[in-house]
Structures are given as C-alpha cells and as structure tokens.
Amino acid sequence: MKRILLLLTLALTVGAGARAQNEKYVKAMEAAIAKVKFMAPKEELQQLAGQFERIGSAETGEWLPAYWAAYTYAILSVKETEAAKKDAYLDKAGELLKAVSKQQADSDETMVLAAQIAGARLSVDPENRWQQYVPEFQGYLEKAKGKNPDNPRIYALQGQSLFYTPEQYGGGKTAACPMLKQAAEKFATFKPASTIHPNWGQDTNQYLLSQCSQ
Amino acid sequence: MKLVLLLSALLLPAFGRAQTTLTGQVTDRRGNALPGANVYIKGTYDGVNTDSTGHFRFQTEQRDTATVAVSFIGYEPHQQKIRLDQPALQLTFRLEEAANLLNTVVITAGTFEASDEKRLTVLKPMDIYTTAGGGADINAVMNLLPGASRVGETEGLFVRGGSAGETKTLIDGMVVQNPFFASGPDIAARNRFPAFLFRGTAFSTGGYSAQYGQALSSVLLLNTTDKTGVNNGMNINANLAGVAVSGYVKDKLIVGAQYTNLRPFIGLTKMNVRWLHPAEAVGGSVIYKGEVGRNGLFKNYTTYGDSYTAMEFRDFTSDYRPVAYKVRNRNFFTTNTYQTSWAEGAWKLQTGASYSYNRDRIGIDTTDVERTDERLQGRVILSRMVSKDVTVMAGGELHGYQYENRYGSRQQTLTDVYSAVFTEAEVYVSRKLAVRLGFRGEGSSLIGRFNVAPRLSMAYKTGAYGQVSLAAGQFFQTPDNKYLLTNRSLGFEQARHLILNYQVIRNERTFRVEGYFKKYLNLVRERAAGRFDPNPYRYPGSSTDNGGHGYAQGIDLFWRDRKSFKNIDYWVSYSYLDTKRVFANYPVKTMPTFASTHTASFVYKHYVSFLKSNLGASWAVASGRPYYNPQSETFLTDRTKPFSSLALSASYITTIKRNFFVIYASLDNVLGTRNIYGYRYSPDGSRKYPIIPPSYRTFFIGVSMNIGRNLAVPEEAK
Predict the structure, then answer these.
(1) Is the pLDDT of residue A11 over 70?
(2) B47 with A50: Cβ contact below 8 A
(3) What's the rounded Cα separation, in Å, for the pair A181 and A183?
(4) N or C end of chain B: which has fewer CB within 10 A?
C-alpha cells in the first residue's frame, strides 16, 4: 500500500511538474507571440527572436519556438535597410526553418514560412534575384496550397507580393486586391490549432486591403 | 521517512530557490559592444538580449553549475560553463566573427563575375541584357569591361594583348568548340548562346584556376541556371532579325526553336557590304533538369543550328575585285552534367560529358572549303571540404578531338586525344587571408607532349570593404590547327601571368584597379622568307617553330556606382595596355594588330518609372590599332584613327492580362562615326582599302511576349 501510495504520489508530482512546465512554455510563448508585430521596434523584435530561441533551447521537442524565431527574423530582415544585414537575418531564419522542417516537413505552415523567407530574399535585390526566388516563393506557396488550401497566409503572401510588384510586371492593386480579399475571407474562418500555433498575417492583410479602396 | 526525503528532494526545486543575477557585456574581438546578442542559460528560458551598449542582466534559478550560451548573428556562438555559487555573477564575452561573404576575403584577381550567388560581384546577370551597345550578346558586354580590346572585325575576346584564340568559352566546365555563329570575312559574329540560360557568367582576364586549361589569356565561364521556372508557359520573341519561340514545362524543361533572317534588319540599315543572301538560320534547343536523389542534379543542354550567309567581299589576295563568299554552317552541341554532394556537403562530385560538332562549308569565289570539327569530352571533379577553412579538389578531363580541313582538292585531318589532371587546395589561413594553390598537368597525343602548370592565387582583406588579390600561374595551349596541319612537332605555346588587384565594394559602389604582367613564350612562328603576308586567313606554307615570344603589361580600372543616384546605374572602365610580340609571320617584335594602347567605356542605365522604361547609353572608345602598311619602312607602326561608338537602348515593359510584353529598341553608333578597323592593300601596294564594319549605324527593334509565366519577370525586362 505504502509502495503504491509512493508511486502514485511520485506520478502525480511528476505529472504536475510536466503540466507546470507545459503551462510555463505556453505562457512564455503566448507572451512573446503577442508582441511580434511588424510595427514593433527592431530592438524589441530582436529581443523576441532571442526569447523564442531561448525557449527553443529548453524545449527541444517543440517546433513552434524555432518557427516563431524564424518568422521574427524574417520581419527583422524586412525592417533592416542594409542589404548584407538583411541577408544575415535571413540566413538565420533559414537555419531555423531547417530545424522546423526536421519536425514538420509536411506542414503547410512550414511551406508558408519557407515562402515568406524566399520572398524576403527576393526583396533584398529583386532585379537580380527574381530568377531564383520568384519560382521558389511560388513553389512553396503552391506546395502549401496542396497541403491546406484554407491557410490564409498563402493568399496573404501572394497578395502582398503582388501589391508591391510594379504594375508592368503583373503586380499592382488590380492584381493584388482580389487575392488580399480572398486572404481576408480565409482569415475570417481560420482557427489556429492552439494559441501558440502560427496565426500571423491578418493585420498586414487588413492594412493592404484598406489601401485597395483608395 | 524515505518517502519524505524523496518528496522533499523532488519538491525542493520548487521551494527556496536561490536566484543568481548575471550581468556583463558582450563584445567583439576588439572590445566593441555587440547590441542584440542573445545570452542565456542553456536548457532554460533564462536569458536576455544585450542592450544598445552590449550589456546584459538577468536572473536564473538554476543552481550549482550551468552553461551560458551566447549567440549573435554574424558571430561564432560561444558556450561557457559557470558555477552558480554566488548571488551575483559578472561575465564578459568576446565573440569571434563568423566567416561570411562580407568579412571573408574572396579571391578576385583577374575575374569579373556576373552572378547573384555571391553578393559582392561587380556584374549582375541582368547586365547582359540591359547594357546599351551589348545587344544581349555575352561577348559584347564583356568587351565593355576592362581588359578586353576592341577588335571590331573579328569575333571573340581579345584579352590583355592576347589574340581571340587565347580565350576559351566553357559551359558548366565543358569546352565549347564553336561559341560563335559562322561569320564572313571581317565581320564579327555573335555568341551562339542566349544569356538568359546562364545564372552566372565569369570573365577571367587571367590567373585562373587549375580547373581550366588550353587558354593562354582568358576563360569565359558560363554556368547554366538550375531553375526553369515554376509555371508552364511560353515566350515569343520577334524582332527585325527573326522569331524565337520557347516553351517552359514547370521545373523541368525548356524547349526552344528559332528562325533568324537578317533581311528586314539589313533592309532598314545602310550597309557597307553587299549581301548576296543575308544570314538565315534555323535552330532549336532543349534544356532539361532533373533531380536525382536528394542532392543530385542532372542537367542537359542541347542545341542545334543550321545557317547560311552569302556576301560579296573584295579578294585582298589578288586584284581586289568583288567575289562571292558563302558559308553554310551546321552546329550541334550537347552537354550533360551531373552533380551531387554528400556528408552535409563536405564531399562534392561534379561530372560532365559533352559532344560538339561543327561544319562550315565555305565557298570563296570558285574555291570550296569545308571544315569540320568534333569534340567529345568527359570531366570529373571531386572536392572535399576537409575543414571549415580547407577545401581540396582533384579532377580530370579527357577529350577526343578531330579536325578536318578540305581546301579545293586538298584534304587534311588532325586527331588529338587530350587529357588533363588537376588538383587544387583552397586554404583560409584566416578570414583575411585566403590562398589557392593548384597544379594542372596536360597531355596532347597530337603533338606528343606533356606539361605541368602551377597556379597560385591569394587574397588579403585590407579593411571592411577592400582587399588585395594576387594571382600567378603558367598557362599552356596547343598551337592553332592551321600550324598543326603542317607541323606536328610543335610544342605547347605558353604564357605566364602575374596579376595584382585591389578592390573595394561598398554599398553598391565598386572600385577596382588591377595591374598585370604577362609573358609569352614558345609562340608559333612562321619562318617565311621574303615579303610579309598580311592575309589573316592564310595557311602557312613555310616552316614553323616555337620561336615566338612577347609580353603584355598594363593597368585596368573600373568604377561602378548603383547607389548615388536613384534608379541610375553607371560604370566607367579604362584599360592601359603595353604589349609586343613576335609570332606568326611577324618579322620583328612589335605591337600586334589586335591591341589598343587605351580602351575605355562608359555605360549608363536609367529606369524611368513614369515611362515604365529602362533607358541606357554606352560609349566605347579605343585608341588606334596597328595596321600593316607595305609602304611603311617600319613594321606595324601605322595606327588607325581612334575608335568611338555611342549606343542607345530603351525597353518598355507592360502587362496585358498578366502576360508580359517587352518592347526593346537599340541604336548602335548613334553618331554614325566612320570607324576603321585597319587597312588592306592591293598586292602591289598601290591601292588601300579600309576594313570597316558592315554598317556604320544600326537600328534594332523587337518585342518579347511571355504567356502564362505569371510573375516571372522576363529576362529582357530589367
């Protein structure tokens, strides 16, 4: 009896510990994710990327910390002005993406993240990089669509890319706005798997859509 | 009791945890603060990114020992074990910079690279399309770079005092036997290969790697693209010279066909030559790419072309009466490459096999000439990254070559088995100093000789953006076919290069200066008695030996600025060349006819957004070249007047239903400058005829339509 009690207590304690750990993980992630915004200052984003990496170093079995770290570095790259630094952030994002793909090779979100990074690579030097990164960007989005056609970020990225592509290259508002609208519809019904799963893109999409009516 | 103990042991971490405060700074090697570095206790969430002064402060509840990890983009990550036995701990970390494209030296002596892979290149792939006066011809654009001489009447690259034959063109490492379309006398032909096929173009003006041989002066390295695009679609390109159609099959295949007819173009242009049949050609090409396994890539590029041209030219070997010159060319080239890597890219294997066939059937007046050559080649390179700083490579090549020449009733054949082995080691002594040392051994069965050539290049980074590079080496080449037909005991011709280069690339501005010395040895010399024969198409009848020699030295300058003015990109290039040689049938050592002392070019590109157009201009100038004047007492001391050509180009880009349309136009030699490339004299020396371009001023216009290739910006568009 004593022995059973001991085992039970032990199991309960360990279980509680694990739950507490999980709760700590989710809380920490939620806190950081809430602050990841395109408009956030660079220093803060750097801090957040660091936080995701730190969480990732402790929670080696989780893929979301690396995912969010990569996403944050991709934003940092877009906000950075110096080309070499942009690429350095994207190198880092690429490494983290690799770690994500090891666990989530088949996830549509992995493909979307890969597309996001390819798109950022392209924007560093579009004139000379389109040959490599346009097909890459498109290819990842196509693959993501194949896995989950309801992922709103696919359409949001496509729309965003069209929005910033000059009209003479097939971009501009006329091409972008229907895509952004489609993204908005998908966002409206999108339910992330948990509070810490990928759920970004709606604010930027909304902002661009608001430009469409102007 | 036991239970209590166990429980308290388990619960202990939850109670009475002592916190440790860690503070300190992260700096680089020199002590400069690194803001934004990530400092944390491994396996916990405890940590922080450093502030704007590189300082950090955080608390941890870990006890006893822990590992602090420090990481920062661009620096080697650092880990350190610490003891957490005090309430506060102060730590300083110095991070080592990681090797990257910005802080690591790259060997650049003698190379102009157009690539988007390395971020610090002087040229970008699109430059080949957007340069006025370049006509989307790879060679014409390379001619606007320092180191190349302007020789308007002959195709090919004349690099640093070298003849066109001293430059080899390679596609994915495989020798291209006939990189140019067939041409007529005194007319420079275009490169056969459309520039959009290549993701990278490197024009080496000397001192190149042991991977390449059989070129005394220069190699033009073309690397086919690995991507074919994500969409199915097609491109139709129609212009004054013909129509080309290509179809794209997603990720796999490009199939193209073209029909060329210069009649409309010639009809619009005032020509200096009388065309009996303006160039007409049909051709087709296939590019296939397939992934093999996880890291393997197979590529095939095959092209076929058939062309016919006929014109009138003045026969400078007899009485200068106009005679007909007809050339029918058939060309086939296929190259297959396979590359793979394993052990995380530490091992790399590149293999290739290619076959080329070229036949020219030439009719000069009443004489028929037929030249055929065939080359079958195989190539293997294995490279191994021994450590982060050391890469070694070894490889080999084997070529079977056959050349047949029929002139009237005379027929001659050459057969050569050429083999080469090479090895090279690249060592980063530090991030600032890189050294590459290689050896190449080659043998030719035709002349029964073997040679070993050392190659050395190194680079040292002098600052954040500048670096000096040095290259030296020995280069061998089998003598020209026309000599081997009559003398197979000739040895290899030889050149030795020494190049010193300084380069700064900062913020899309590039400055380069390169000084070089090149020594020529064992050049083939004709021991002709009597009068000098200036005919460049002659076949030597006299005895030959390797008694020729010479030198070339000079300075090349290059400045490019893509940053200072919005939407404007310009470059300036200047070359000074001092060269003399005695070779071929030259009686004395002198400056050869294909050299200019001063060559300069100015290239300007401007994107005008409200016109949706790219506008470009280029101006090429060169001092006069030597020509042979039989009345002159000294050999090749007469000079033509300077060369000058101003070219304009414009392209307008638009989309119709998400399909791209690009309209492009160019005007070469806008000012109609009467350039003269040299003179020919009647055999008695009494009459003088200038060698002039086929037309002084040319106008060209075309349209390119891309259908179903959404978002893929067409190659002409930028």
Answers:
(1) no
(2) yes
(3) 5
(4) N
Bridge-based pairing state of the strands B218-224 and B167-171: parallel
Summary mean pLDDT of chain B:
88
Residue B713 to residue A57, Cβ atoms within 8 A: no
Residue recorded with tokens 């999980």: A22
Separation of alpha carbons A75 and A92, rounded Å: 12
**Nearest-Cα residue of chain B relative to residue A50:** B38
B55-97 pLDDT per residue, tens: 999 998 888 888 999 999 888 889 999 988 888 889 999 998 8
Question: In Å, what is the CA distance from B607 to each residue of A169, B562, B584, B664?
Answer: 14, 12, 48, 14
Where residue A2 falls among pLDDT bands split at 50, 70, 90?
low
| Cross-strand partners of B457 | B436, B471
Q: Assign B107 to helix, strand or coil.
A: coil
Contact B273, B279 (CB under 8 A): no
Please, which residues bridge with residue B215 across strands?
none
The interface predicted TM-score of the complex, written ipTM, equals 0.83
Residues of B in contact with A164 (CB under 8 A): none
| Domains, chain B | 20-95 (2.60.40.1120), 111-707 (2.40.170.20)
| Cβ partners under 8 Å of residue B219, min gap 6 | B167, B168, B169, B170, B202, B204, B208, B212
Chain B CB contacts of A125 under 8 Å are 116
Look at residue A18 in the predicted model and tell me its pLDDT.
Answer: 60
SS3 B369: strand
C-beta atoms of A9 and B3 within 8 A: yes
CB pairs under 8 A between A and B: 122
Mean pLDDT on B117-133: 68
Residue B77, chain A, CB below 8 Å: the answer is: no
State how far the Cα of B168 lies from the Cα of B646, in Å rounded to an integer: 28
Whole-angstrom Cα distance, residue B30 to residue A199? 42
Range of the domain at A21: 2-212
CATH number at residue A111: 1.25.40
| Per-residue pLDDT, B714 | 39
**Are the C-beta atoms of B269 and B695 separated by less than 8 Å?**
yes
Q: Which residues in chain A have their CB less than 8 angstroms from residue B199's CB?
A: 131-132
Chain B contact for A130 (CB, 8 A cutoff): yes
Query: Phi, psi at residue B140, to the nearest 5°?
Result: -65, -35
Nearest to B328 by CA among B280, B289, B366: B280
Instruction: Give me the torsion for CA of B2, B6, B8, B14, rounded to 10°.
Output: -170
Instruction: Flag whether residue B229 sits within 8 Å of chain A, measured between CB atoms.
Output: yes
- Asked whether the beta carbons of residue B48 and residue A47 sit closer than 8 angstroms, the reply is yes
Is any Cβ of chain A less than 8 angstroms from the Cβ of B124? yes
B43 touches chain A (CB under 8 A): yes
Q: Does A3 touch chain B (CB under 8 A)?
A: no
Tell me whether B326 touches chain A (CB under 8 Å).
no
Task: Please name the residues between 455 and 494 in chain B that touch chain A, using a CB distance below 8 Å.
Answer: none
Percent of residues, chain B, with pLDDT higher than 70: 91
Q: Which residues of chain B does A72 touch, with a Cβ-Cβ cutoff of 8 Å?
A: none
The dihedral formed by the CA atoms of B546, B549, B555 and B561, expressed in degrees to the nearest 10: -20
Query: What is the pairing mode between strands B20-28 and B88-95?
Result: parallel
How far is A99 from chain B, CA to nearest CA, in Å? Answer: 15
State the total domains in chain A.
1
pLDDT score, position B718: 34
In which element (H, E) is residue B454 found? strand B449-461
User: Please, what is the angle between helix A152-164 and helix A108-124, to 10°?
Assistant: 10
Residue A73, classed as helix, strand or coil, is: helix
Considering only CA atoms, which of B422, B509, B411, B499 is closest in space to residue B457? Answer: B499
